[in-house]
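New to this. Explain these tokens.
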Amino acid sequence: MTEEDEEFQRLEREAKMRALEDDDIQDYVRPWVGLTRDEQSFVYDSLHGATSRKDSFWVDFANAIEQRLKEKNA
């Protein structure tokens, strides 16, 4: 192998390493969208008095909030 071949291989290896390090591909990450105060109030008002048991109300309330956030962030 000549010095020219060795230099070519060295440069080729360096180019491959740079290509691996220079990853310009980025995943698009959608920003999280939360509930506005009006939306929070709407969820609360729609469930207020819906159940007679206090514990059940809060479970339903949390589930309703979670469902609305899933819709907004889908």
Residues 3-72 form one domain. The chain has a mean pLDDT of 78.
